[in-house]
Amino acid sequence: MRRKPLFLLLLLVLLCRSAQTNGDECPKFCKCAPDPVQPTSKLLLCDYSSLSNSTTITPIASSNFNNQIANIRSLFINCDGSHFRFPDAYFKSLTALHHLRIVGCHTTHFSVKLFEDLSALRTLELDQISTSTGSFEMTEDVLMPLARLEKFSLTRSQNIELPQRLLCSLPHLQVLNLSSNGIPTLRREETCVAQQLLIVDLSRNQLSSIEQFLRGIPAIRQISIAHNQVSQFDASSATPFLQQLDAESNRITDLESLPETVVHVNLAGNLLKRIPDSVNSLPNLVALNVSRNTIEATNSTILISPELEMLDASHNNLETLPSEWLQKCEKRLAHLHLEHNQIEKIPSGVLSNATNLQTLDLSSNRLRVFGDDILPENSKIGNLRLANNSLEVLEPLSLEGLKLEFLDLSKNRLTEVPAAIGKVEQLKKVDLSHNQIGKVYQYVLNKIKQLHTVDLSNNQLQSIGPYIFSDSSELHSLDVSNNEISLLFKDAFARCPKLRKISMRNNKIKSLDEGLTEANALRRLDVSNNQIVVLKWSALPESLEVLIADNNDVNLLTASPTKIQLKTVSLSNNRITVLNAEQIPNSLESFDVSHNRLGRLGKSALAEKSQLRKLILKGNLLTVIPTDSVRILEGVHQIKVELAENPLICDCQMGWMLATSSVADKTRRIQILDPQVATCMHPVDNHQIPLEKLTKKDLLCPYQSICEPECICCQYGNCDCKSVCPASCRCFRDDQFNINIVRCAGNSTVTPKREFIVSELPVTATEIILSGVTLPQLRTHSFIGRLRLQRLHINGTGLRSIQPKAFHTLPSLKTLDLSDNSLLSLNGEEFLKCPEVSQLFLNGNRFSTLSRGMFEKLPNLKYLTLHNNSFEDIPHVLSTTSLAKVSFSGNPLRCDCSNKVQHHHHHADSPFWEHNAAEWFSHHRDLVVDFGKVECWENVTKAFQTNDTTVLSAYPPNMGNDVFMMPIEEFLRDYNSSICVPFSSGFFGQDPQNSIIFVIITFAIAILLIILVVLAVSFVRKSHDAINQRRYKASSLNCSTSAGSSPLPIPLLSYHAFVSYSKKDEKMVIDQLCRPLEDEDYQLCLLHRDGPTYNSNLHAISDELIAQMDSSQCLILVLTKHFLENEWKTLQIKTSHQLFAKNRSKRVIAVLGDGVDANLLDDELGQILRKHTRIEMRSHLFWTLLHSSLPSRLPLPPNDDSSQLYSDIYGIVPSDVV
Questions:
Q1: Residue 430 — pLDDT band, cuts 50, 70, 90?
Q2: β-bridge mates for residue 1084, sequence order
Q3: For this UniProt entry, which residues form the secretion signal (predicted)?
């Protein structure tokens, strides 16, 4: 059942041949090959794993393979876990098919007609047909056409349902495999009996009982029920021919009966406390496994089978060796496993007759002594395992005469190598590790002629004496690691001609001077984790190929001899500081010096290392690795280098690190293995650059004074091709002198500060960086003559002014950085003959405007930074430039709504609107790189003081006491929805309409209203005299103080209350509130009747309205939904009312209309209501509360001069006035 590797290899060979010899095409998604069993027939391998759910599967008979359909003997189908549905005619006409395998094709069932043409099928294998989330049902009708099936396998599927007449449907079945399906029960119809079924595998399911199923397979020879939940098993009568039973990992406590034909029994991992009698009485038992139970020796009975060859009773509770079990089979027994028990002693002679014993495993017990007479002298035992006991003594004759090849004495308490080992002449491998051995005597191990491997690790050895292993002609491997060895004698490994491998790691060895001179055949040496200080290559055998000396104290390597043949050397985690050519053997192929203190690689260090393939330098202190150090003169292999964790500097001598290096061809053979992790530090700004992103321009060398090649004036003091680095500056150049970078920084500790002298900068500089130096002014021609200058940075120098022509004649300049200074303006005269400038950084200055001349002098300018300046509005010149990117964050930009009235009056020098930031950003947001950080700023206090308000002036400050801030993105988002949309506020709050129809209609209505007003006024005048005769004082008809109104004397222009309300509620307010109060002789001033007209979009406060309110003793605020949605949202109403409420001598009476909740008002209105009186209009105590809140009606002060005027206007003068 496990021939798959060989079978698949055979398939690969056959697939290499032509699948079609007669021109027929193989079916789609399939590969064709000759059948491995019958080459004249065909094998099809179909893979549908890449198909989508919508792909239609074509039956094999529908392809161009028709001529070969009847010749297909094997068909293997793979779906790789995808859902798959076979068409009913998929297998049609495959009458010669013998072997069908379907793997990973998830489905719920097979069609009844699917297998109807497969009458010749002998083997059907179904694997992974369903998952834990699906199910699969195999019906009897599907299996009926497969009457000649001999092998049926359904494995690794979940939630499967099998027919109870399975055995009836397949009368010729011989092999049944239902393993790894999680089947809880297995039922069959009582009349269904499989007379030819020989092998059944039911392992790895969830079966608790199979007795009913066993009665239907009387001819069974081999059955596996391993890894189920079976607790009882009775098979004597149902399976009279059973030979092999595998019931591992179940819950069996006893076996009632087994047929005498059983020869192999596996009951490991059950709940047995004794070997069942049914097993003991098997006459022909050959192999018995009862490991991992709880069997005790006190329950032992005799195994009557004389044929027993293998007994595994490991992992039980045995305290003594169960000799009773072995009385009948001792001479036949070949393999006895008793490891992991509690055996403390083995009596003498208990195995004296076990002459056929080949393997005895007593490891992990409690043995203290292994006696002389335990094993017979003529025993065939070749493998004796006594590891993990408490052995202190191995008696001298305990191993005499044995033909052992492997002896395991590890993890015991031995203090010396037992002399008994020396008597085993055929011993090849001995394991004495993890003991307490402190000394190895001569003439013990050297007597064993066939000894191949010795393990003495994890002991207490302090030295390796002379001739310990002498004459061990077959010794290949020695492990003495994890001891306390500090001394190696000269002849320790003498006469060991085949000793190839020695491991001495984790000891206390300080020197290898003479200890290895006699190990002439040594190939591999491990001395890691020792205390070696000086590594002498001459002390190593010439035959040595691999040396591992990690984690020592090596700080010096001696000169390498020419005859040494080392190929691999590992010296990581040592203290090596320098490597020169003579210290590295020329024969090396791999050299690991990682995690040392290597600071320099000598010149031509690798020149003669022609065999070198791998060099590990990571974790050192290397800053520069010149090309000369890694160049190999006659290299034949590509060198792989690791450089991570080094403080590398991107130096111009390291051109070999570039992926597309232009240096000599031989250096291209170097491959850096960790370019993503390894980095070098840029010498100018100290940022780290991964080597995979390293470019040629990043490799720079520092200099103080240097002359370019072919310079003829270097000997003179003033030479344009000689570069001298100024004081307080750092200068760098590349290897071809195409790059010359000068970086100057200020020193804050030096006082007084000296002004930087620009003329000292090298003339050939390609990049100049002045940061923090003192440079308050740039004079004319400061940088003249620097024809190669491409980038100029002047940052944080306190620069306040730049004279004209300061940047004169800089034809190569592309980037100019003037950020973080104190500049106020640039007019363009500074940039004469600088046509190539494309990047200009002006951020962090004090600019508030930009001149057009600057852009005219810089025609190629594409990138401009203006963030962190003082711009309140967008410079108009930006609307006509060809900039690609600009920055504007950190400026106090003022945002306002567009003034459409000005659209008809603008000219070239005036904007369409007063503050144009919002409109400009709405059209150029893609141009601004920091658009998300741009903010609108409004100093509310300053706006009112200077009468220069915007739409944001009405918002309360949210930054300190004066400033309101809003992101420009939020402003533009609400621009047309709330911020700049005029609120309906009656006749006075609407903007004029441009529609001609609307104007005509309005004009007609106005004429009609004028006529009605004239009629009304005439009617009022006729009745006015009669009214005044009945009253001492009439209510005011006009309280306006504006121009054109009656000029009333100041003492008479005093009102009891100012009534503020919505234009839409005017009729209700006059009828229900104002008229009753006027009847009671209250003088009232009404907002829409007596006040001035106002506009909702006018960003100015009416002085006339404020004066009217100041002349009133109290304010009656009628709060309705209309008032809150219209009047209150206008700037002039909100501001005038807030000013009135701040006057502590005034009163505010809030009358709450229907549907107005005082708790849901905005902050400004809520603050007013919290400090003053509020009355609900529907309250039954409304008039009582109102009268108590109104001011007393005090008489006007007497004034003779004004009485006549009063009488002329209002009628009879009251006596109080007279």
A1: very high
A2: 1057
A3: 1-23
CB crowding 66-104: b at 16 or more within 10 Å, else e = eebbeebbbbbbbbeeeebebbebbbbbbebbbbbbbbb
Q: What value does the CA radius of gyration of the chain take, rounded to a whole number of Å?
A: 53
Q: What is the mean pLDDT of the chain?
A: 85
Model-wide pTM > 0.85: no
Report CA 1104 to chain centroid distance, whole Å.
Answer: 66
Q: Is 1123 left (phi over 0), alpha (psi -120 to 50) or beta?
A: alpha
User: What is the separation of C-alpha 522 from the centre of its chain, rounded to a whole number of angstroms?
Assistant: 48
Res. 1205: pLDDT tops 60: no
Phi and psi (nearest 5°) for 279? -80, -40
Amino acid at 826: L
Q: Determine whether 430 is exposed, middle or buried from the number of CB atoms within 10 Å of its CB (0-12, 13-18, 19+).
A: buried
Question: Rounded mean pLDDT of 955-972?
Answer: 90
Decide if pLDDT at 618 tops 80.
Answer: yes
User: What is the rounded distance in angstroms from the CA atom of residue 1060 to the CA atom of residue 1058?
Assistant: 6
pLDDT at 447: 84
How are beta strands 963-967 and 935-939 bridged, if at all? antiparallel
First to last CA, the chain: 132
How far is it, in rounded angstroms, from Cα 819 to Cα 841? 6
CA torsion angle 703 706 710 714 (round to 10)? 180
- Give how far Cα 648 sits from Cα of 118, 592, 598, 684, 691, Å: 72, 18, 12, 14, 10
Torsion of CA 896, 897, 901, 906, to 10 degrees: 50
Residues 6+ apart with CB under 8 A from 1063: 985, 986, 987, 988, 989, 1088, 1122, 1126, 1127
Q: Residue for token digits 């192929």?
A: 589
Q: What values do phi and psi take at 93, rounded to 5?
A: 75, 5
Q: What percent of the chain has pLDDT over 90?
A: 47
For 558-594, write each residue's pLDDT tens digit: 999 988 899 999 999 999 999 999 999 999 999 999 9
The domains found in the chain, sorted by start residue, are 576-699 (3.80.10.10), 1051-1204 (3.40.50.10140)
Cβ-defined contacts of 82-89 (< 8 Å, 24+) = 82/48, 82/49, 82/51, 82/106, 83/53, 83/107, 84/48, 84/57, 85/57, 86/57, 86/110, 86/111, 86/114, 87/57, 87/58, 87/59, 88/113, 88/114, 89/59, 89/61, 89/62, 89/113
Q: Is the pLDDT of residue 1018 over 50?
A: yes
The helix/strand/coil state of 121 is coil
Cα Dmax for the chain: 156
User: d(Cα 647, Cα 763) in Å, to the nearest integer?
Assistant: 32
pLDDT band at 916 (very low <50, low <70, confident <90, very high): confident
What count of other Cβ atoms lies within 10 Å of the Cβ of residue 417? 23
User: In angstroms, rounded to a whole number, what is the distance separating the alpha carbons of residues 678 and 669?
Assistant: 18
pLDDT at 45: 92
User: Model confidence over 762-788: pLDDT tens digits?
Assistant: 888 999 999 999 999 999 988 888 889
- Contact between 197 and 170 under an 8 Å Cβ cutoff? The reply is no
Check: CB of residue 1141 under 8 Å from CB of residue 1108. Answer: no
Question: Given the structure tokens 């490597």, which residue do they identify?
Answer: 579
> Which pLDDT belongs to residue 900?
45
Query: Do residues 390 and 370 touch, judged by C-beta distance below 8 A?
Result: no
pLDDT band at 365 (very low <50, low <70, confident <90, very high): very high
Rounded to the nearest 10 degrees, what angle do helices 1103-1110 and 1131-1142 cross at?
A: 30
More confident residue, 1045 or 472: 472
Its sign, for the CA torsion 496, 497, 501, 505, is positive
Q: Give pLDDT tens digits for 201-218.
A: 999 999 999 988 999 999
| Angle in degrees, 0-180, between the axes of helices 1131-1142 and 1163-1171, rounded to the nearest 10 | 30
Residue with tokens 């022509």: 805
